Amino acid sequence: MAESEAPTPSPRMILEEVRIIFENRPGGDIVYPLTSPEEIEKAAKSPYILKEGCHYKIRVTFRVQHDIISGLTSQTSTFRKGLRVAKDQQMLGSFAPQSKLHEVTFPRHGWEEAPSGMLSRGSYTSRHKFADDDSVVHAEWEMAFDIKSEW
Fold first, then answer.
1. Distance between CA atoms of residues 31 and 46, nearest Å
2. How many CB atoms lie within 10 A of CB 84?
3. Which helix (H) or strand (E) holds 37?
4. CB-based contacts of 83: which residues, under 8 Å, 6+ apart?
5. How does pLDDT run across 121-130, given as a tens digit for each residue?
6. How much is the pLDDT for 1?
C-alpha cells in the first residue's frame, strides 16, 4: 500500500435483509437478502407483486458496527415511469453497535395499503436511503414492484 493511501474504514451500517410483510398473502412474506452488491442488484431487477388494496409493511434488518449512528433517518422515493409519485421521510433514532441485529418496520403502527384501481396498476421502483444527522449516507438500495389485480 502506498503511503498516500489510507485504509478504507468498514461501514458502520451493514444491511442484512428487507422483508415485505403481508397481512394475508398466499405464500407469506417476501424476503430479499441485501448482504452483497449482487443481492442488492437482484432486488432492483426482480419485482415483487403487490395485489391492489393489500395491506403490507416493510421491515429492514441491519447491523451497526464500530460506532453509534445518531439521528438515523429513512428516505424513500417511489417512481413510476421515471416520475416520482411518492416521497416519505421518517426519523428512526440512534443505533449503537451490538451483536443483535437492529430492525425497523414501516409503518410502525398499522399497515400500508397498496393503491387500487386500474390507473394504479403497473411497474414501480422505490429508492431507499438511510442517512444520519450529519447527512452521511449509510445505506442505499432500490427495489422494483408491480401492482396487479391478483397475486
1. 12
2. 11
3. helix 37-45
4. none
5. 999 999 999 9
6. 46
Spell out the domains of the chain, with CATH numbers in brackets: 13-148 (2.70.50.30)
Residue 43 DSSP symbol: H
Q: What is the pLDDT of residues 6-49, one digit of tens each?
A: 444 458 899 999 999 999 898 899 999 988 889 989 988 999 99
Nearest to 33 by CA among 24, 22, 25, 41: 41
Q: Cell match 414492484: residue?
A: 145
The DSSP annotation for 97-136 comes to --SSPEEEEESSSS-EE---SGGG-EEEEEEEEEE-TT--
Nearest-angstrom CA–CA distance, 24 and 28:
7
pTM of the predicted model as reported, rounded to 2 decimal places: 0.83
Q: Which three cell numbers stand for residue 65?
A: 458496527
**Length of the chain (residues):** 151
Structure confidence at residue 16 (pLDDT): 94
- Residue 117: pLDDT over 70: yes
| Under 8 Å between Cβ of 72 and 128 | no
Give the span between the Cα atoms of 71 and 134, in whole angstroms.
8
